[in-house]
Amino acid sequence: MTAVYILISNGDDLFYEQLLVSLYSLRMHNPELNVVVLVDEKTERTLHGKRSKVRELANEIKVVEVPEEYNSKERSRYIKTTFRNYLSGNLLFIDTDTVITDNLRDVENTNADMACVLDYHATLDQQLDGDKIRQNVQSIFNENISDENIYFNSGVIWLKDTPAVRSLFDQWNHYWKIAAFEAGKCFDQPALMIANRKCGHIIGELDGTYNCQILTSVRYLHKAKIIHFFNNVWQGKEQLSPFLGHELYEEIKRTGEISPETKELIANCKSSFYAPTYFICKEQVEFMNDIVGATCFSSYLQKNLSYRAIRLFCQLRYNIAKILSRK
């Protein structure tokens, strides 16, 4: 089995530093595993000096030819939807925004040619945005998918070297190009959903411990083999763990090394969360995802005029209700 990463980075972002953390954690638990990092030519030219450590941790840095006109995100997704073509044998693809916390050998017992974990560890019917995801996929590809309830997260992918898997990757790349260049939505998961549908739903469900999406469920944390921290802009996530903020990775960028303190955090990743850490219910998340909730929260963080006006109104309402309750 070969572990596969994809890196598109120009030195101004933190993707290289995230990769370094993930690779270091992988080597802690899987010292003999073959690791290949797929890059474009532009990225490969930056992997020297403070950005050269990856060459010590990976077995191979493999340059993939990418259309010159593609931007960084398009380059990343192009390689992601074609990487089966560049390598032989069983593969385990891993996103860079991850920390490996256990040996990964048992993934080879997966009873499917290709397997992923459910996005957010839930079916579309269970997800808050399930209907929105269906609508988005339907609008991109003009295809009725109301009967679909499975939507996979592509952050970790187990795959064998079979004709069926290679055919699915051809379809995945085809539909990603439609999404990116015809619909203007450079995301790979909607295309993966349609490709899987066209290929007869060959993707199996991978055990959630191989892609513990910690921001959306703690169900698999205690047994997690790979913790997926997500590259997204969710407000306040940096308050939960150093792996969800920028400071840890900025330090690596400055020094080119992983400090002893960060190595300790990586070794104890499952307990790296700040205290206190709070659970909130589904209805609270729905409110925060609503435009009203998101606006109110943003105003609260800024303590701006809108927040002060809302707070004054709520205080007056509370005082009036309190006075009326005494009558």
TrEMBL record:
GO molecular function, one term: glycosyltransferase activity
One Pfam family hit: Glyco_transf_8
Record InterPro entries: Glyco_trans_8, Nucleotide-diphossugar_trans
Name the UniProt record assigns to this protein: Glycosyltransferase family 8 protein
Species the sequence originates in: Duncaniella muris
